[in-house]
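Thread: pyridoxal-5'-phosphate complex, take 2
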Amino acid sequence: MQQSPNYGKSPTRRDFLVSTGALAAGLTLASAPVAQGAAEKLAVSGGTAAVTATHDEALKWPRYGKTEEKAVVDLLYKPSYDPLVTLEKEWAEFIGVPHTKAHFNGTSALAAMFFALNLPPGSEIMVPSYTFFATIAPMRFFGLVPVFVDINPRTLNFDLEDAKKRITKNTKAVLPVHWIGLPADMDHICDWAKEQGLIVLEDCAHAHGAKLKDKRMGAWGRMSIFSYQMSKPLPAIEGGMGLYQNEEDFGRACALGDYQLKGVDKSNPYTKYAGSGLGMKFRMHPMAAALASCQLKGLDERNAAGAAQVRKLNDRLTQLPGLYEQSSGRTDITRLYYSWNMLFLDEAKAGMSRAKVVEALKAEGVHADAVHYQPQHELPLYAEAEWWHHKPEIPELPGTKQANDTCLALPYFTGDAPELIEQYAAAFEKVWAHRGELA
Ligand SMILES: Cc1ncc(COP(=O)(O)O)c(C=O)c1O
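Output below.
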């Protein structure tokens, strides 16, 4: 994957002069990106907004059509659970794992996965705090305790070096999340986990089809989950999937939420619970399964088109001093985008505060936002001993804080939007051309 010139390094002043041709904040050169728009008045100062194209079509999600309509209507007139069996098979083949179980959402898939671990009470799981509650909170039902790990503020993913510092004698597993479609460094994480005797799990709720070294995310861990909630890269309105590398984990996960233990081999010790299960019913709605199967067709192509469009925009934006994109700098990944195109601002290098940049971009018509994503470790649930086998440690997580303090989120355009891409780039270049004025 082509990387932005601003990824993972702090460009020196010389790099900047070479790459942009700009001499300093506020100075303008006709051909330099930073100089584009210098002649135009900023919208925030009463000028004309750079973005005039409508966002409606570019932000539309999910994108269902006649195929999905027919699948749902067919099921309406002929109800059946067959779509679950079909989806489980398709998803196992697509990701490349032997066992899959369709659940009513990603949260229930996580609960089944935590149960399948069959770990003694008090076992700890290393997990980023910068994630949705579902990656962590259901652990408590199974006597598991989170160890909050920091993220790298430029990838928004599990920071292995930080994890190495936080391992305890009770740590039994790691659970990285591939945040907004960027694969975590599963190869390095798996190597370290193997050395330490830790189980590797994956939360792939944002990474449907993403790959590292030609292996899809979801196939790296011993167990993993996906969400098919309506905002996700593969939307089924509500739905989830558990993925299992081994038969025993699969049988145990199914026993929790499927009283029939469908799809579990008769030789599996957990099949003796067929008829009662262990008390829960986590089955996916068949209409959701039908929608997911329709959306799986063309998923790779949609992901690739979306990523290519982001590249067009980010290749221009990351030329601007102090502006970076979410990236691991790895060339052996196929990433996708979900929800946001996350950028980061180095205020000192940009010569402007994030607040000023966001204000100026918004005035230009850019849907820019200084998103604060709520880290889990700051929430009351984790501070109260009564909900846990033992109280989780509440650490300082500087990478998590830096991510929230520096991010500049743009929407991910789910549809072809060449006009918006051009206008967004022009809006940024215009704002940067006036950075002396905004400083
Ligand atoms: C990282 C992550 N994990 C798990 C989930 C849970 O999925 P669901 O909403 O389908 O329960 C989500 C949902 O947003 C998520 O973002």
